[in-house]
Amino acid sequence: MEQLSTISPELTNSLFQKQKKLSDLKQVAERFEALFIQQILKQARSAKLADDLLGGEAVDTYTSMLDQERAEKLASNVNLGIAEALVAQFEHVSKDPSVD
Description:
This protein has four helices and no strands. The protein has helices spanning 2-5, 9-46, 57-77, 82-95. Helix 2 (9-46) packs across helix 3 (57-77) and helix 2 runs antiparallel to helix 4. It starts with a helix and ends in a 5-residue tail after the last helix.
């Protein structure tokens, strides 16, 4: 009975590594989704209908940083399905023991 209650350290480490790979994959997929949203916002902003009253390099930097933050918040709060599709596509790679 004692043998059943203990798990070998190798098995524990292997399970932890698989969970870590899947967690890393989900994090990277969500970051990719944020970059995708950021590019959409950037393209939408570049199609200006009029010039800014306060236009300048500082305003461009500020709006770029604001778009980046908005994209990260949108990616974490709104489900576009891009991250899930990437995880589904590459999940089998993280399960393959021959790939490290």
